[in-house]
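A note on notation is needed here, since sequence and fold are reported together in a single record. The reader may check this reading against the record printed directly beneath this paragraph.
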Amino acid sequence: RPWYWDDPQWNGADQPVVGVSWYEAVAYARWLSDQTGREYRLPTEAEWEKAARGSEGRIWPWGNEWRQDLANTAETGLEQTLAVGSYPDGASPYGALDMAGNAWEWCATRRIKTYPYELSNEWTDDYLEGTEKRIMRGGSHIDIANDVRTTNRNEANEPGGRNFNVGFRLVSYSPL
């Protein structure tokens, strides 16, 4: 079970699941894929950033001006995760919620990958093996505005690490 599983401050019914390692996030994606017959996986860092910034290259998912009423960050003073979608006006251009604040999100991408991104399949068994540090994006409820920018990358993360402000988001291909 994830750390903090029974702690409502961190893992309520509608809150993002936190306290999971990168390995556990990958295992969950594989389990869900097996259960549904549809592929789910962690996003690559490039996919995560595109979903957060849109084609306009926004600084925050909602635009280029900081607004503390559009994300769960340190500025709110709440110091806990909130229900997913608590800030609908803070959605990205593609409608993705909570791309800034609430909980850091694991990406499939290894730390060694840098800009400009070279496209590669980051969901192969070979790529997923190993202990290389992995990228997290999005910031959390304890991070300040500068740290939840769409371009900010947290790259010093051991894949076995867990924390109260780290969760994940899954992506899948459109069935159409």
Observations:
- Strands lie at 40-41, 104-110, 134-137, 153-157, 166-168, 171-172.
- The radius of gyration is 15 Å.
